[in-house]
Amino acid sequence: MENFTSQDLIYALFSLGVIIVALILIRKIAGCLVKSLIMAFVIAVLVAIYFGVINV
C-alpha cells in the first residue's frame, strides 16, 4: 500500500466536491426537464382534444 501525501488528499477531496456538485446540478436540470416534458405532453393532449372534439 502506498503512502498518501497531503496533495493526494487535497486532490481526492476536490474530486469528491466536484462529483457532488455535478450530481446536484444534473438532478436539478433533469427535474426541470421532466417537468417541461410533462407540461408539453399536457398541452399536446389539450390541443388534440380541442381540434378532435370541440372544433368538429
How would you describe this structure to a colleague?
This protein is mainly alpha-helical. Helix content is 88%, strand content 0%. It has one helix spanning 6-54. The radius of gyration is 24 Å and the shape is rod-shaped. The protein starts with 5 loop residues before the first helix and ends with a helix.
Q: Label the structural class.
A: mainly alpha
The residue fraction in helices comes out at over 70%
Sequence of secondary-structure elements: H
The average pLDDT is 83
Largest sheet: none
Number of helices: 1
Q: Approximately how much beta-strand content do the residues carry?
A: under 5%
- Low-pLDDT residue spans: none
**Radius of gyration based on Cα positions:** 24 Å
Task: Characterize the overall form.
Answer: rod-shaped
What is the first-to-last residue Cα distance? 77 Å
Number of strands: 0
Protein topology:
Layout: H1 6-54
Summarize it.
The protein is built from one helix and no strands. It is mainly α and 56 residues long. 0% of the residues are buried.
Note the main attributes of this structure.
rod-shaped, 56 residues, mainly alpha, 1 helix
